[in-house]
Structures are given as C-alpha cells and as structure tokens.
C-alpha cells in the first residue's frame, strides 16, 4: 500500500522542466526536431542533441558538447516555419528564440533561425535512412528580453 501511495504522490508533484524534463525524441516534423534538440540539451544528453544535426555539417562532437559546459537550461520559442521543396528534399526555415540560463544563474537571449531538411522517405532505398535533421542553426545574442525577441531567417 505504501508503495502505491508513493507512486501516486510522485505523479502529482510537478517536475521542473529545468531539473528533469520529460524525454522527447520526435523527428516527425521540423519543429519537433528543434524541440527535441533542446529537450536533450536540458537533459544534458549531448550525444542525443548532436544526433539531430546533419553529421556532414555539424563538426565534431567534443566541440559541440563543450559549447554547453556552462549551460544549466534553455527555454525555446519557435516562429512560423517556412517550407520549400526541391528534388525530393524539403527544406524548412524556422525562426527561433532561446533563453539560456548559465550554471552561474546568468541568462542570455539568442535569436535566429534553424534550417531543417527532410529527404522524402519514398525515394530513400539505400541505407542509411536519413531522418528529418538540422542542417544549420544560426543564433546570435540579443539585448532584447526572451518575450520581446524575435527570430528571423534569411528568406523571410
């Protein structure tokens, strides 16, 4: 009986997104991939975060991981995606704003754009399968608040 009560009590207590975010690994849409990226970063699962990027464009894993050494958590806000297709590949630009909290408690807001690619599953017939992935992310520091900042993409 005590064990059941503990499970129920645990389920009722809300978890902080910064302390223990729910696991999210969703590669079903461009926005979901970016949301999954930040879920992995907030969980300090840097290899999973790294896996959302096109491996030919991201650079080495150790540098990627080191870039988050002083990051405690990140809050994400995405804008309206802009999608264009060409020769079996769909490209989506997504404006993004993030607020990063450092391990020292400081905050910094960044704004910019993510470029996502999706090769049509119907034309993929040779391994490895290429899931929806991040081609690039260009974010720059801004002096605006998280609420006031807006992400922008080159083709918008």
Descriptive report:
The chain is an alpha+beta fold. The protein is built from 4 helices and 5 strands, in the order H-H-H-H-E-E-E-E-E. Strands 1, 2, 3, 4 and 5 form a 5-stranded antiparallel beta sheet that branches. A hairpin with a 2-residue loop joins strand 2 (82-86) and strand 3 (89-102). It is globular and about 50 Å long. Residues 1-20 have low confidence and may be disordered.
Describe the secondary-structure layout:
Blueprint: H1 2-12, H2 30-42, H3 46-50, H4 61-66, E1 71-78, E2 82-86, E3 89-102, E4 107-119, E5 133-142
Pick out its properties.
156 residues, alpha+beta, 5-stranded antiparallel beta sheet, 22% helix, disordered N terminus
Concise summary:
The protein is 22% helix and 32% strand. It contains 4 helices and 5 strands, in the order ααααβββββ.
State the end-to-end distance.
Answer: 58 Å
Number of strands: 5
What percent strand? 25-35%
Q: How would you classify the helix and strand content by structural class?
A: alpha+beta
Main sheet?
A: 5 strands, antiparallel
